[in-house]
Write a structure and sequence with these properties.
Blueprint (H helix, E strand, L loop, with lengths): L5 H11 L4 H14 L2 H4 E4 L1 H16 L11 E5 L26 H8 L3 E6 L19 E3 L6 E3 L5 H8 L5 E6 L5 H6 L3 E4 L19 E6 L2 H12 L12 E5 L9 H16 L4 E4 L2 H13 L2 H9 L6 H4 L4 H11 L3 H19 L5 E6 L14 H11 L3 H6 L4 E8 L5 E7 L5 H13 L6
Parallel strand pairs: 2-3, 2-6, 9-10, 9-11
Antiparallel strand pairs: 1-3, 4-5, 6-8, 7-8, 7-12, 11-13, 12-13
């Protein structure tokens, strides 16, 4: 992975006069029009992009850019309110009226000079880790060695697809159970799910409020750090975090993990150890306890989603919802209240237990047990449900514990598809996690 990301590289071109924000925006919009944008975007925003790019070009001509994000093209998952556009949530049953105001994150990036290219596709209501959408299309990627069509992951499918196609320098999305980390992993990208509350979420449609958080998909950790600074609206310098201790999570490197995915993860740990960085292997009982809780009570995302999406359960609306999402919603609505209470109490207890562990532990495990599933293998409801559970097998327990997570490409599988590892840590240790991920990127420890 390169040490300089897309944002810095493009900013250098703007400063040198080699290229300008207007040309950059035009290139992104043209590329979107030429690459099956229906499946990647729910809506493009060319008028807004041209206006913002023109304003940025004027600032550069005056020698007064607003900062590193000035003129940088970005995309937004269609859960973020953007003034003048409807928030579809990837559905046909949401309110078609345009939003009157920007979501807080949108406002912050616009104030920093970012150029919005459009709103990206997603699993309907963000209620799936696969990224399939019967209304706006399903983004796919071709396996380099077989040519077969594979998913890019979800729910932030359009965000990952746009990044793969070079449409924008960064994609903003949300993560509830893995919706940033899974598509980043399947697509060979970097994905950051912060601790809840790190970024403002006003104006973002909800799925499960206890778990939802704004996240970032980018080409590099360096790009994530650029956006993180703006979203936090802070220039304060944090004290240097403690040196990380990398811990391979043995229970998430078991025989349910695709061999190439596991091997690439183990190879990363070997690289760290050979470089003299502190490493260990450990069975993390707390994560096992989360898995057992899901088996006994169901998932927290389902329990909360049943309430959040209740307004769409009228028969005439249900008939227009993706059948897979409709079935998940019906199951969520059927969960008794005592299971939600039990999950919330258990979550509190387990998060307290995790907080008693050393604060510098960085847990390392495959982001997903397999590379991206083939579209041809997802023909039945059972196949789709099984693939969805597999996609979220590692990310969902981490979300339950509000563990920030950073996905990094770890190599490829036999079909040439990307594999990924995740670095994760206890709630609130985002600075330490970001520093560890940046350290690995600078040393080129991600990938083969």
């Amino acid at each position: 992975m390169p040490e300089v990301g897309r944002i810095e590289a493009l900013a250098q071109r703007f400063r040198s006069g080699e290229s300008g924000p207007e040309q950059s925006a035009d290139d992104c919009l043209i590329r979107a029009d030429q690459t099956s944008a229906r499946a990647v975007f729910t809506q493009l925003t060319p008028a807004l992009a041209h206006r913002q790019a023109g304003e940025s070009a004027w600032r550069f001509a005056q020698g007064r850019p607003l900062g590193l994000l000035d003129g940088i093209p970005v995309t937004w998952k269609d859960l973020f309110a953007m003034a003048g556009t409807p928030t579809t949530c990837g559905s046909l049953v949401t309110d078609p009226a345009p939003a009157l105001e920007n979501a807080a994150c949108v406002a912050r990036l616009h104030a920093a000079g970012a150029v919005s290219i459009g709103k990206t596709n997603l699993s309907e209501f963000a209620f799936s880790g696969l990224g399939m959408n019967p209304h706006f299309g399903t983004p796919v990627q071709r396996a380099p060695r077989t040519g077969a069509r594979h998913l890019v992951g979800g729910s932030s499918s359009g965000a990952a697809a746009a990044m793969r196609l070079g449409i924008g320098c960064v994609a903003l999305g949300t993560d509830t159970s893995g919706s940033i980390r899974v598509p980043a992993a399947y697509s060979g990208l970097v994905g950051f799910r912060p601790s809840t509350g790190r970024y403002p979420d006003a104006g973002v449609a909800r799925l499960a409020p206890s778990l939802d958080t704004v996240g970032i998909i980018a080409a590099t950790v360096a790009d994530v750090l650029c956006v993180d600074t703006v979203l936090r609206n802070s220039t304060a310098t944090a004290p240097p975090p403690a040196p990380p201790m990398f811990v391979l999570v043995d229970n998430f490197c078991d025989d349910q993990v695709q061999p190439e995915v596991r091997q690439n993860c183990l190879r990363l740990l070997d690289k760290l150890s050979n470089a003299g960085l502190p490493c260990a292997r450990q069975h993390v009982d707390i994560l096992d306890a989360v898995v057992r809780a899901f088996e006994r009570h169901g998932t927290l995302v389902a329990a909360e989603a049943g309430h959040e999406l209740a307004r769409y359960t009228a028969p005439e609306l249900l008939a227009r919802i993706d059948p897979f999402v409709r079935r998940r919603l019906a199951a969520a609505r059927a969960m008794p209240a005592h299971q939600l209470v039990a999950l919330l109490q258990l979550r509190k207890n387990l998060m307290q237990s995790l907080a008693r562990q050393p604060a510098n532990l960085v847990y390392v495990f495959p982001t997903t047990p397999t590379s991206a599933p083939a579209l041809s293998a997802l023909r039945t409801a059972v196949q789709i449900a099984t693939a969805n559970s597999a996609a979220l097998r590692h990310t969902m327990p981490a979300s339950f514990l509000d563990m920030p997570g950073m996905t990094l490409p770890s190599g490829i599988d036999d079909a040439g598809l990307p594999t990924s590892v995740m670095l994760s840590s206890q709630r609130g240790s985002d600075e330490m996690l970001l520093s560890a991920a940046r350290q690995l990127e600078a040393m080129n420890f991600s990938g083969p």
